[in-house]
Fold:
Amino acid sequence: MSQMTVNTIMQDLLQAGKRMENELIDFRRNLHSFPELSTEESETAAKVAEKLRKLGLDVKTNIGGHGIMADLQGNHPGRCIALRADMDALPILEESNLPFASKRPGVMHACGHDAHTTILLGAVKLLVQQREQLAGRIRFIFQPAEEINTGAKAMISQGVLEGVDEIYGLHNLPTLSAGQAALINRQMMASVDRLEITLEGKGGHGAMPDQSIDPIVAASAIVMGLQTAVSREISPFDPVVVTIGSIQAGEAYNVVPQRAKLTGTIRTFSLEVQRHMEQRLRRIIGSIAEAYRCKATLDYFELTPVLKSTTEHVNYVESIVDQLMGTENRLLAAPTMGGEDFSVYLEHLPGCFFWLGSGPEKDAGQAYGLHHPKYTLNEECLALGASLLAAIAIRRGGFVG
Structure:
């Protein structure tokens, strides 16, 4: 394919994406107004399925929960390329004051999955318009339950990757200006593990602690002691985060409770470190609990691996970003200890995951980050994101112009 042909394709996709910008904005705002939590995405899935059917695609629903899959078959042989978006919202009370803010109190698209869903639908429409020139097959994956790190595994277990050669996805980033993208050819996001600790003590009167075994004191010691797993047992060159996010114990100010429950998360950038964290934490938790005369039970769940795209596919997406958006708008992504279950797909297939800017223009003010109750999205990213995903699929699958 000549460079002139490539440039023409890119410009055509940009212009076609821009023409449907208002349609994308309207759809995204509808999703934003009616968010649904993980495993509850039935209405969102129904809206997506309806759009796909109107585009003439055969749609498979209820994959791994409310997941959706549809294939677009080209007229020429080529690779099978998968594009994935997530659909679920978060248990957050929205404070954006937008006219299309969530109409469901306590539920909010504070991570922009409404935008991801809309962007992929836009890419579907662009690709359908190019069907006669497409080579290979493109699979569209609309995933539920990303926020609880179960959706990718559930969809994979039901065959969503069968026949797929490689996979691509994106995540909006409000601290990156719309019109920019960021990639990295190393670990981009951390592994995600979850721990649940139950401490069994002996309840009693708060005025007579000697007749009780206090699980709250033991819990406090465990919270502090867990940090030694990071500061004194793991190399400072291997980033690790151990965070206790909830402690539940007692109901009365003058009573020593019978038990305490703690939940937390562990993040790493190393598979080797991740593999040994459970054993390490069991030893620390058990020893501290015993020192405080409590019995500890630990439930440990490995949720997602480290997210690292494959070199070939990072290089490929970088070339598409340069052609479509300009080299000056491609940035080096900073690794984050946040997690993403797109990493589970990358355990099975090569591919690339990258950031798409969704924030205000440079120097236009501070943007609220992901998962913030005042999070907002610069909707200029919608049409651009759709064109970018379409371009990735067209060029990688094989385009017969």
